[in-house]
Automatic annotation (TrEMBL):
UniProt keyword annotation of Metal-binding present: yes
Pfam families reported in the protein's UniProt record: AstE_AspA_cat
Residues the record marks as active site: 273 (proton donor/acceptor)
InterPro entries in the cross-refs: AstE_AspA_cat, Peptidase_M14
Domain of life where this protein originates: Bacteria
Protein name as catalogued: Peptidase
Sequence ranges assigned to domain Peptidase M14 in this UniProt record: 29-305
MF GO annotations: hydrolase activity, acting on ester bonds; metallocarboxypeptidase activity; zinc ion binding
BP GO annotations: proteolysis
Family: Belongs to the peptidase M14 family.
Phylogenetic classification of the source organism: Bacteria, Pseudomonadati, Pseudomonadota, Betaproteobacteria, Burkholderiales
Keywords from the named record: Hydrolase, Metal-binding, Zinc
UniProt KW Transmembrane keyword: no
Organism of origin: Roseateles puraquae
Cofactors: Zn(2+)
Amino acid sequence: MNTPFYPVGTPGVPWGEAEVAAWRARLVRQRRYADDVLAALAPLRERFDVQTYGELDYDGERFPLQVVRSRGWRDDLPHLVVTGGVHGYETSGVHGALQYLRQHGEETAGRANLLVVPCVSPWAYERIQRWNHGALDPNRNFREGSPAAESAALVALLAPLKGRVLMHIDLHETTDTDESEFRPALAARDGKPFEPGEIQDGFYLVDDADHPQPAFQRAVIDAVAQVTHIAEPDAQGQINESPLQSPGVIEFPVSRWALCAAITGARFATTTEVYPDSPRTTPAECNLAQVVAVKAAIDYAMAAA
């Protein structure tokens, strides 16, 4: 299959600062973090503690990073963590997290501490992009000393909870632009040939290959299957080039790859993947799938605690 080379850089040559600047110059702001996220958080201040845990400053554009915590936080209670918007283009992760807070955020009051970061990457959210300002993928950089400011800020926020978190769910999407834009850009950035892949239609989960929790993953899949369709494997029996752990569940080396769901070392952790480009779904259904996934994950973890 002949694929046109990505329109930034030279084939076979990794990007330098000039190429990153050229890539950035192609991007256009398409929505506003202040309107979509900060404004949505304002009314939640009546019921939750909403705080700024850091700030991004990219060429004079400033983005306050927001965390929502349950009121009456007690260190002796289980900790529940929800993250969204690690990749800015994955819309339902952001809006699903906000919807969960509005509809269900107080259901564990007095029984667990809830911490929600609805939009980890606001600069990328505005531009509907996977990478941050420096053409780095935050979801390969959640570690101490991270070169991605978004990742470093979240790692610092969650560091006091590491090893004490009962459940962490990280809300993502897989879209057609993964194949048309983001994977070609990755190949170009790294000076490698682009190898086309296949995107499966439907919702799926990613477990940590080094710390699998198959019963937990199954409970989340069973709940989400009531509101949207679950991805079927391809002809090789895989989703995203990975074999199935069980229907709708694959495994990545989440901890070794420094992915978001591994930050906290949670007993129960998962990454959702919604497919909003399916003709069988809608944006509202994708948001609902994220909400149901969060609720099912918390219900399972609390029952097992």
